[in-house]
Amino acid sequence: MKKHMHSLPEPERIEALTRGLVQQASVNGTTGEVDIIGNIRHILAEFPYFQEHPDHLWLQTLPDDPLGRQNVFAFVAGNADAANTVLYHAHIDTVGVDDYGRIKDKAFSPDALNNFFSTYDAAPRVQAEAQSGDWLFGRGALDMKSGAAVHISNVLHFSENREELEGNLLLVINGDEESEHHGMTGALHELKRLQDEKNLDYVAAINNDFITPMFDGDETKYIYTGTAGKLLPAFHIYGREVHVGDTLAGIDPNFIAAKLTERLHNNYRLTEHVPGELILPPSCLYQRDTKPFYNVQTAPGSHLYFNYFLYEATPADVMTQLVQETQQACREAETYLKDQFEAFLDTTGLPQRDLSWNIDVTTYDAYVEELHERGIDTRSVIEQAIADNPDADTRTLSFRITGALQELDPDKRARVILFFAPPFLPHNYLKDSDPGHRQIKAALEAVLHQHEAKTGESFAVKKFFPYLADGSFLSLHETKSELNALLQNMPEWERLYPVPFETIQSLDIPSINMGVYGHDGHKWTERVYKPYSFGVLPGLIRDTTRQLLNGHITA
């Protein structure tokens, strides 16, 4: 670290770090993710502690990553000869910048954006906040380069004040959070290696992914003791294609897809009920048919998938619910299509035709089992589908595998096959039934009470971080049988999405989110609030770290 930055007051140092990180583009899926990790390692390498202990700072290359992405690890051994360790983690990748439109060239320039928004009267609140000087704009400023900067600053503090630590501090900064979470899932092996080699006891992890108001005028700072999970339920729909001149005799998969979207998308009836938590419904992320080009034949198939947040329910619960909803949607589609065909016959006087309107509903696992019972070889077909689509992303490849299996049906029945596509993010939270978890929560609440009195801030502890975060991969609440219900319906998961679930269960690290604060994450008006994020939050995280380590909580 440059000497002048080292001597800056902490809020100014964190702001300088944040600015530097924002100015270095690291959009997910680009080489910027590689470059910025190297830069962060260089910053940490200038800390006196890591100059004295260079082996406590290292890079981990993610296996089989096409970009050669890496994670940076920094280990600070505390004053006491103790195994208990607190893990800091943050991601450094960002979403893209196309949303900035005509000012896209300014997306990584906080000062240029502040100047622009200071005169941007189309959004008075944004303009006022830009004029105040209390907000820092830029892609990644809120999500979450400011968070990485806070962790780096706290590592500096503890590396120079090791007597405050009755245990150890481990920092990991990773990429690929905004897409497949390969950064954190790749880090799990390294966390396990360190645990085994150094006999570490991971007391808790502290993420500082961004927090934001829940409603207009909300000034509460929310602390989360767990993370919501995520499923990606997918639907492969096979219909009965026809020429448009015979359209009423067909079973249009796009119509079935529309019925499913109507039934599932933003349907709050399908959400879990967890009092006091921000619970979100399913939302459609993808819907399109399988026709590769224009012609006058109706589509043979259609694909869709949904984001499905997971709180306390299991994947098996969700699959049961979705099978029921899909069956009802298909019954409605069958009735409608049959009624329209009958009306057509009544009007034209044409004779009846021997047509079935039945639409089967099954899961991937059940359908594969049905094929096996009929003596049909599925393995060679799956292998061929994978070989034929070497560049497809995991969701597309899952559809290609399922579609190839559908083609094996000798009866060519109209059918909906439900399966789970990557990614899957586990849900986890502090359980009241666990003594160690209760101790963590009590320690956290004690620190928050002290900081409310000291800073005037208002804090609230919530169970689930309402967005998606890497903390999902640090603990797994599903039993083996509950996990099997997911994996048996995720095509070729060991190859397409090889998450080390056994390692997650072995590590079992409780994850807390104490985030930087701001507005409009993932929007072109993204901005972080400096007084809290750079002035209050660092001390809050330090005090929580001390409390967790000094209490030597055993989770």
UniProtKB/TrEMBL annotation:
InterPro entries hit by this protein: Peptidase_M20, Peptidase_M20A, Uncharacterised_RocB
This entry's Gene Ontology molecular function terms read:
hydrolase activity
The source's superkingdom equals Bacteria
A Pfam family of this chain: Peptidase_M20
Please report the name of this protein according to its UniProt entry. Answer: Protein RocB
Q: What is the protein's species of origin?
A: Lentibacillus kapialis
Q: Which gene encodes it?
A: rocB
